[in-house]
Amino acid sequence: MDHDVLIIGGGAAGLFCAFNAGRRGLRVLVLEHNPEVGRKILISGGGRCNFTNRSVSAENFVSANPHFAKSALAGYTSADFVDLVKRHKIEFYEKKLGQLFCRHSAREIVEMLLAECRSARVSVKTGCTVNEVRHDGRFVVDTSTGQYSARRLVIACGGLSFAKVGATDLGYRIARQFGHKIVETRPSLVALAARGQNWPKLAGVSADAVVSVGRHSFHENILFTHRGLSGPAILQISNYWKKERPVSIDLMPNVDLAAAITADRADRRSLANYLARQLPQRLADHIADRLSLNKPVDRLSNAEIELVASTVKTWQAEFDKTEGYDRAEVTLGGVSTDELSSQTMESKLQPGLYFIGEVVDVTGWLGGYNFQWAWSSGYAAAAAV
Prior knowledge:
The structure is a single chain. With 385 residues, this protein is of the alpha+beta class. It folds into two domains: 2-186 and 330-382, FAD/NAD(P)-binding domain, CATH 3.50.50.60; 192-322, Translation factors (Elongation Factor Tu (Ef-tu), domain 3, Beta Barrel). It contains 13 helices and 21 strands. Strands 1, 2, 7, 8, 9, 10 and 20 form a seven-stranded mixed β-sheet that branches. α9 runs antiparallel to α12 (302-313). The protein is elongated and about 80 Å long.
């Protein structure tokens, strides 16, 4: 069956591209291998979908080319998507740091996308596994439900994160087939793990912290797990973490701890109880035990005060690995932007071939940025197909 545009992947980017292309009068078919579209949308944001952020710029993304996302993000903004959400009368709220969530359910976003697809006369085929893609003047896609062809092909089948909702490497395989390079992929927006630490004793403890790797820092909560650290600050820094690089953690942001202890030199509380004024008790106990300083504050030497301050303010945490793709929110890396147009997402190697969303080497921070990349890149491709 012939169409103008075939889109492989019925997730956020694919559906958004589909109805915007359909609005132009194009015959569009979306091929989705899952039994339903938008499965990753449905589980995102705790089931409420953090669908965008009020403040989005290219600085909120990680890519081998930090400038690549600028054109698409400017072409379709977070304000544009908020207007669409409002038109569909979906109630939403701002949680923190500009993060916008559905008030009721992520399914409202999926239903909105499907309603727009119906309005634009887009065809959507689910339970359709792609077996082969080739180009012989037109793109031909052989699937479990038949053969389809079109003059334009959009790859929107995501990355490797969340295999339980159907993630595969199909997009990367198609890219390689047409000569594209793949920037090395790894799990991201993911918890970090390490062996040989006393993690279980602290499991469940959370704390406000500034977490840094190199010049990148995030000030949010961290959460101790049985295997390492999680929480928003850790998920954010995982975009920049590499195995050989320790993560620097400040457990008392905006506090000059050495100066504070010195000023409280007459305090007769134990060090653990003193630290517990601003830290969870279990964490304060752990620090005092680790430093073998179970003594009153008024008995600490100057050297011991400096040791406590450096431990709390510049803890160098070393990790062995991430918690893997099954627990990662996104995939870092992907189809190299060197071989894509930043204006249209079209391949520079194969005319008529487009890559959008997570499959591309553009990865957003936690907070709605990856959904905004799906909307923006999908819109850019839809305007060009």
